[in-house]
Write a structure and sequence with these properties.
It contains 5 helices and 6 strands; from the N terminus they run E-E-H-E-E-E-E-H-H-H-H. The protein is globular. Strands 2-1-3-4-5-6 form a 6-stranded antiparallel beta sheet. It has 2 domains: 131 residues, 3-Layer(aba) Sandwich (Rossmann fold); 37 residues, no CATH class. The longest helix has 12 residues. The structure holds adenosine-5'-triphosphate and magnesium ion. The site of magnesium ion has 3 residues, from helix 1.
């Protein structure tokens, strides 16, 4: 399920709507310090259902909205769309192409869309459960995360292995069943 496109609109430093196309093979994103490379990986985690503002280097989720600069006024909305080629049907959704959109308004309202249909955060997370990627999986390693993993407690490190082994999915289902 190759990632084919990422569209950032009002997310962090991306005040201007920006589309990144991912072609076959490896894509490298290079740029000077502070040019927005980490913001791109954060946008990917955010649209996949990251719920911790702190792990996106903010204090409130609204901090992901473009906050203004010397030349531009702040914006009222951040929106990110991630498009996957799902011909191999690795994502748990019956479509050959899957787009996921997340948007947040300064008023605090936020929503998710899967192929332009409204969805809940848990629906978005469920898409990825068997794919081995998630907002916090080792598929995305942010600056400082290696140290954090090495220094984490054994129980926390265990979660990483459970996710890689595909056990986490069943564990979450069990927890859900138990709370019902
Ligand atoms: P480095 O090479 O140092 O890791 P980087 O390319 O990863 O840099 P980022 O950390 O992605 O850079 O980008 C940081 C920039 O994004 C800073 O200039 C910061 O002011 C800007 N930024 C972060 N959040 C917002 C926001 N909500 N609104 C506007 N700009 C923002
Ligand atoms: Mg960076």
């Amino acid at each position: 399920m190759p990632l084919t496109e990422l569209v950032l609109d009002g997310f962090k430093s991306f005040a201007e709507k920006t589309t990144i196309h991912f072609n076959d093979g490896i894509t490298g994103i290079v740029g000077p310090n502070g040019s927005g490379k980490s913001n791109i990986t954060e946008a990917i985690r955010w649209v996949m259902g990251e719920s911790s503002a702190k792990s996106l280097r903010g204090t409130n989720m609204k901090d992901v909205i473009f906050a203004g600069s010397q030349y531009r006024k702040p914006l009222n909305k951040a929106e990110v769309t991630l498009v996957f080629d799902n011909k191999d049907h690795e994502l748990a959704f019956d479509a050959d192409q899957v787009s996921i959109t997340r948007r947040i308004l300064r008023s605090g309202d936020s929503e998710f869309l899967i192929n332009n249909q409204q969805a809940r955060m848990r629906d978005v997370r469920a898409l990825f459960l068997d794919s081995g990627i998630s907002p916090n999986s080792l598929a995305i390693i942010s600056q400082g995360r290696v140290d954090q993993i090495l220094n984490s407690r054994p129980e926390q490190r265990r979660l990483i292995f459970e996710e890689a082994a595909g056990v986490l999915h069943f564990k979450q289902q069990k927890e859900e069943a138990q709370t019902q």
